[in-house]
Amino acid sequence: MGKRFLQSALIVILGLLSVAGQQPDEKKLRGCTAADPTGYFEGSAKSQEAGELSVSLNLRCTDGRYEGNLLTPVGDFPLKAVSFESGQARIQFDAGGDTGTIEARLDGTNLHGAFRLANDAGAIELRRVSDAKPPTPTAPTLQLTPAQWREDLRFFAEELPKRHANAFQNISRARFKEEVAALDAKLDYLNGDEAYAGIDRIAQMIGDGHTYVQFPPDSANFPLDIRQFGDEFRIAAVKEGYERALGARVIKIQDMPTAKVHDLLLQFTPQAETRILADARIEDFLAMGMLLHAVGVIPDRNTARYTLADDAGRESTVEVYALAPDDKAKWVFPFKERPLYRQRPGESFWYTYLPASRTIYCSFRGYANLAENAKRLLELVKEKHPDKLVIDMRLNFGGDYHDGEKYLIDPIRALPDINRKGHLFVLISPYTFSAGMSNAAQFHTQSAAMLVGQAIGERPNSYQEPREMRLPNSRLVVRYSTQFYKFVESGKNLIRPDREVIPSWADFKSGRDTVLEWVLAQRT
Which of 275, 301, 278 has its CA nearest to residue 288? Predict the structure, then answer.
């Protein structure tokens, strides 16, 4: 979360790190021979950012080239290049698009050295424990035998309580063991979707929004985007070819009323978070064949029948089929022109000046290149001298909250013309999550910002800072929280807006943004 949500795979990678901009010496990376070091190494790294972390290195020499992977608490990372020269090892690996580097000395069966990641540094110690292991598949799969699922469940039940900062703050240890035993007894009769759902359901009982089992790449998503407006479930967008369903109310899925389906899916939402967050997550689940199949709503994960009703009450049905994981078809919306907060969906941070209201509007969805992006925003503020600055975090799902504080909140706080009541606004919603939630809370407590929109679903005082582990057979990724954060000192453990504005279906359908409209209508 907060501190390291989207970037957790870099920071906790035990920091094992990479120096930005450093290029490999190609002369040293040409390959290996049978006499060169290989094997399976285990040990630990001491990171200033994440403390001491266990790590394993699987190093093979295949067809004259090194290959293998680095196993860390946040997942498996393939090796990119390896060299040994005079007993000195230089190992590079792919850390989600970034290159990590370990430099260590091989003394007998031990590798010991140092790592660096940005400003983080520390020692790494690895010991060879066996020959190199054969390649293992990294792509998640649900096609396992009951014995393989049982092994995954046992690994999950043993490792999650050890790795989570406080796995039993919401569920007792005895109840946890009972749930694991009950699932274990059923595994002989469950299909892959049901086995996944059983493990995730237990993970959700831990309670926080960062502890769960990630969906596999093929979760059988249907070409519908269903959103809740009050008590209604509406089809807010469709993939091309399903336009006739756009805007309809969803009455049933297969033969079950939508409200009942919704309640069945509550078990796959974090049990200690708010109902607000649960409702927001279930919106996606209502068009996910994997979960609908797992709970018995549909007999086949790849097809479903939705009963719809138009505004006159006329009912119809639509048969839908699961999309391929890499589907590229366009989404179709009911409005002709996207409101500002939905424009430029591929950009994590952008801004524009609205001269009619002398307002600078900033869409803050993510943290990539935030230092440079925030700098340019602040330059525009100094150039335009706006009456209002609007930071829209309604679709901010997280990143590094320290970056948000350093590059955005602190500099804005130092602007006397902006950091005052009625001139600084932060827009929030149930989807504002992780670092987004943290920075929204900090804007509220550390600046004169007014929060506008809807309550945030994630609790501000909760366990966050996720890391990852993989189940041995399914290769499913289990995320778990490692630190407790407190962003509200008193009152309810909830971030509510100073001014609540709840968009209606009519607003959404017409492309109106009533949240931003309210802000722009305020006199300075």
Answer: 301
Distance of CA 386 to the CA centre of its chain: 34
Angstrom distances, CA of residue 159 to CA of 264, 269, 278, 457? 28, 21, 26, 28
How far apart are the C-alpha atoms of 381 and 163, rounded to whole Å? 44
Residue 232 identity (one-letter amino acid): E
Predicted TM-score (pTM) of the model is: 0.80
Q: Who contacts 521 (Cβ-Cβ below 8 Å, separation ≥6)?
A: none
Q: What DSSP designation does 266 have? A: G
Which residues, including other chains, have CB under 8 Å from residue 200's CB and lie 6 or more apart? 212, 213, 268
Element (H, E) at 70: strand 65-72
Q: Considering only CA atoms, which of 205, 211, 212, 198 is closest in space to residue 168?
A: 205
Q: How remote is the C-alpha of 513 from its chain's centroid?
A: 26
Smallest CA-to-CA distance from 393 within 450, 463, 310 is with 450
As given in the structure block, the two tokens for residue 272 are 């200690």
Contact 289, 302 (CB under 8 A): yes
- Closest to 226 (Cα-Cα) out of 239, 213, 240: 239
Which 8-state DSSP code applies to residue 409? I
List, as one string, the DSSP characters of 307-369: EEE-TT--EEEEEEEPPPTT--PPEE-SSSS--GGGSSTT-SEEEEEEGGGTEEEEEE---TT
Phi, psi (deg, nearest 5) at residue 39: 140, 180
Q: For the chain, what is the total number of helices (H) and then of strands (E)?
A: 13, 24
Q: Considering only CA atoms, which of 317, 321, 332 is closest in space to residue 251?
A: 317
pLDDT values of the chain reduced to their tens digit, one per residue, 524 residues: 333 333 333 333 333 323 223 333 333 345 788 888 999 999 988 876 667 778 889 999 988 889 988 877 656 778 888 888 888 988 887 765 567 788 999 998 899 988 765 556 678 899 999 999 888 767 899 999 999 999 999 999 999 999 999 999 999 999 999 999 999 999 999 999 999 999 999 999 999 999 999 999 999 999 999 999 999 999 999 999 999 999 999 999 999 999 999 999 999 999 999 999 999 999 999 999 999 999 999 999 999 999 999 999 999 999 999 999 989 889 999 999 999 999 999 899 999 999 999 999 999 999 988 999 999 999 999 999 999 999 999 999 988 899 999 999 999 999 999 999 999 999 999 999 999 999 999 999 999 999 999 999 999 999 998 888 889 899 999 999 999 999 988 889 999 999 999 999 999 999 999 999 999 999 87
Q: Minimal CA–CA distance to 358: which of 417, 316, 414, 408? A: 417
Ramachandran quadrant class, 217 (left: phi over 0; alpha: psi -120 to 50; beta: rest): alpha
Cα 479 to the center of its chain, rounded Å: 9
Tokens of 372: 């440079």
- Residue 501 backbone dihedrals phi, psi, to 5 degrees: -135, 115
Helix (H) or strand (E) holding 282: helix 275-285
